[in-house]
Amino acid sequence: MVKLTLIARVTDGLPLAEGLDDSRDVPDADFYKQQVKALFKNLSMRQNDASRMSIETGPYIFHYIIEGHVCYLTMCDRSYPKKLAFQYLEDLKNEFERINGSQIETAARPYAFIKFDTFIQKTKKLYQDTRTQRNISKLNDELYEVHQIMTRNVQEVLGVGEKLDQVSQMSSRLTSESRIYADKAKDLNRQALIRKWAPVAIVLGVVILLFWVRTKIW
């Protein structure tokens, strides 16, 4: 069964919409939502991730698709057919783009499209029972294949994100330290120039002063 559904902007991880009633029958729903937020954060830092992926987490599995800088993600039981999960996400994507496509990039607050929950709940009901004729037909649709979609473990995916985060922090720290060293180098060069030319400037000053005094006396 479909358990959770969340939609977020990939460029910054901003959550755009969510299935509001999804977590009622999910123990530790908050834990899995935190994992989803961590996944969205990781996706916002990585430019070359697969546009479709399945990620195993405990007794469940996340499925997501990315299109138009938006990630559509659902969490299902592991026994739920992968093909139906991705067709469910395709239905959400098509409707979300149709209704909100022009506003996605300018959305500034979390859950700006929370009213999309109505469509999420309606579509979710259509996909819950895998034995309906509608869903059996979708499972038998040979034109829609999901065999090549990669499946990974959530610890592996989040671990990669943490390493990238550490690399980013290290890069920022090195950049900051480089600026500090550059400033110190400029100060040292300035001090060296002062030490080199200060005696000359003093001598010239004395000569000019003597010349001025002499002209006044004469």
TrEMBL record:
Pfam families: Longin, Synaptobrevin. The chain crosses the membrane at residues 197-213. Its main location: endoplasmic reticulum. GO terms for biological process: endoplasmic reticulum to Golgi vesicle-mediated transport; protein transport; retrograde vesicle-mediated transport, Golgi to endoplasmic reticulum; vesicle fusion with Golgi apparatus. Residues 135-195 form the V-SNARE coiled-coil homology domain. Keywords: Coiled coil, Endoplasmic reticulum, Golgi apparatus, Membrane, Protein transport, Transmembrane, Transmembrane helix, Transport. InterPro entries: Longin-like_dom_sf (IPR011012), Longin_dom (IPR010908), Sec22 (IPR044565), V_SNARE_CC (IPR042855). Belongs to the synaptobrevin family. This is 25.3 kDa vesicle transport protein. It comes from Nicotiana tabacum (Common tobacco). The gene is LOC107805259.
